[in-house]
């Protein structure tokens, strides 16, 4: 008997099979080679198909991050306890190589406010070794913790210092170009321009953001890291409101549209500012299972000539300590100047990591603004295996000249995450 299949049914079956294979990939390991000895299929950590000469490759992967936050005090409008459960990220990642020198990455995030959006869509040319040229939609390069993937940062959320100038790492649904590379197994650098979508001046010309980052790492391998970096970012704009605000490391404050509180460190004043520059410093040291890292960020916001407002300054720093109880070291990559994953030595017990981070942020404008906040984060991460990570953070925040509607200026939060990576 001959059975007929619709095109839609065939494609749906293919998609379901591909997804099932990728999700189940953690159960397999090793290499499968064709009779021609020119194709390698890897199923550990996603699904990857590549030619043995490395001319072509295709990889299907992704991450799922399911979060739960409970918070009170300054984290809510009325000071009472609130909670939120949500998908922080649900990203399907497609990447690979074509004709050896061309690399591509197309990532879709299905977890952002319940709708899908491009997390990245880029093509990179690597033929000008050691320089790489990337074009497309991607996060600009600014800061050590931002360069480190959300999968492998030690706390659930990145430092609050990035809230002070959120545009420095925001692709803004636009297009960009970035030149980066490694030199002498010691230096990493990048320079990029991003053209934000729908951000034109009165003449229709795009307002752009510019990012520069330089890293020197005399020691650059897992468990043996000495890292220093400097960053600069600038954006062109005719006018903006100069608003500075922060979630203070709890994402649930904006997921909760009813009672979540995202305080203003400097209020919006429409059309009073026209200059925006950001500087950043970064440093890290790792020895075996221990690591320490710190970053400093300063944003200078220039008032318009003749404005009744004054120039604004927002600044902050953090210090983070992490220690892996089971002895594994955090990975590190000089190409990108970033920390990488912890690989559990014992796949049954997994790896256990303790972390503490201190954040200090503030905003100033002579005669108008003088706000400050301190956030302590204590956390534990269980890397059950190479695919599953379970995290829990406890946060304590205290602020000056900032309060919710109930005049609360401090608060506590508990954040938890279940992560699956393939």
Number of helices: 3
Globally, the shape reads globular
N-to-C span:
39 Å
Q: Give me the side-by-side strand order of the main sheet.
A: 4-5-6-7-8-9-10-11-12-15-16-17-20-21-22-23
Mean pLDDT: 89
Structural class: mainly beta
The fraction of residues in strands falls at over 45%
Number of strands: 23
Main sheet?
16 strands, antiparallel, barrel
- Contiguous low-pLDDT stretches (5 residues minimum) are 1-29
Question: How helix-rich are the residues, as a percent range?
Answer: under 10%
Summarize the helix and strand pattern as letters: HEEEEEEEEHEEEEEHEEEEEEEEEE
Rounded radius of gyration (Å): 23 Å
Account of the 3D structure:
It is a single chain. This protein is mainly beta. The protein contains three helices and 23 strands. It has helices at residues 7-23, 144-147, 252-255; strands at 31-33, 39-42, 47-51, 57-71, 82-98, 102-112, 115-128, 131-137, 175-183, 187-200, 206-221, 224-235, 244-245, 264-266, 273-287, 290-303, 312-324, 332-333, 338-339, 351-365, 369-383, 388-400, 410-421. It has a 16-stranded antiparallel beta barrel. Strands 13-14 form a two-stranded antiparallel sheet. The longest helix is centred in the N-terminal third of the chain and has 17 residues, at 7-23. The protein is globular and about 70 Å long.
């Amino acid at each position: 008997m001959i059975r007929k299949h619709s095109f839609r049914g065939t494609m749906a079956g293919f998609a379901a099979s591909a997804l099932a294979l990728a999700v189940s990939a953690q159960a397999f390991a090793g290499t499968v080679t064709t009779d021609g000895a020119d194709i390698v299929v890897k199923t550990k950590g996603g699904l990857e198909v590549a030619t043995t000469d490395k001319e072509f490759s295709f990889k299907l992967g992704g991450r799922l991050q399911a979060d739960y936050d409970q918070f009170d005090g300054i984290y809510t409008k009325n000071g009472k306890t609130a909670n939120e459960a949500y998908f922080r990220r649900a990203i399907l990642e497609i990447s690979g190589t074509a004709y050896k020198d061309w690399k591509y990455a197309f990532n879709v995030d299905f977890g952002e406010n319940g709708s899908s959006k491009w997390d990245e869509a880029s093509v990179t040319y690597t033929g000008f070794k050691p320089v790489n040229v990337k074009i497309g939609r991607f996060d600009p390069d600014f800061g050590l913790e931002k360069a480190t993937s959300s999968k492998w940062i030690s706390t659930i959320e990145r430092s609050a210092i990035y809230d002070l100038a959120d545009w420095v790492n925001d692709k803004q649904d636009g297009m960009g170009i970035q030149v980066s590379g490694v030199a002498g197994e010691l230096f990493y650098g990048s320079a990029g321009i991003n053209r934000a979508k729908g951000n034109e001046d009165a003449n229709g010309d795009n307002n752009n953001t510019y990012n520069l980052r330089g890293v020197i790492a005399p020691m650059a391998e897992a468990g043996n890291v000495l890292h220093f970096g400097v960053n600069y970012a600038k954006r062109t704009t005719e006018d903006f409101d100069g608003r500075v605000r922060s979630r203070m490391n709890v994402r649930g404050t904006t997921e909760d549209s009813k009672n979540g509180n995202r305080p203003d460190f400097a209020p919006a004043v429409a059309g009073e500012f026209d200059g925006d520059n950001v500087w950043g410093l970064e440093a890290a040291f790792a020895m075996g299972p221990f690591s320490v890292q710190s970053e400093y960020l300063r944003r200078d916001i220039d008032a318009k000539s003749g404005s009744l407002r004054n120039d604004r300054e927002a600044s902050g720093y953090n210090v983070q300590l992490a220690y892996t109880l089971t002895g594994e070291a955090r990975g590190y990559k000089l190409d990108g100047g970033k920390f990488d994953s912890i690989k559990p030595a014992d796949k049954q017990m997994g790896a256990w990591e303790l972390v503490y981070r201190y954040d200090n942020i503030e905003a100033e404008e002579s005669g108008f603004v003088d706000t400050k906040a301190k956030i302590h984060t204590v956390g534990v991460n269980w890397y059950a295996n190479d695919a599953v990570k379970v995290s829990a953070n406890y946060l304590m925040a205290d602020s000056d000249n900032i309060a919710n509607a109930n005049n609360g200026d401090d608060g506590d939060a508990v954040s938890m995450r279940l992560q699956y990576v393939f």
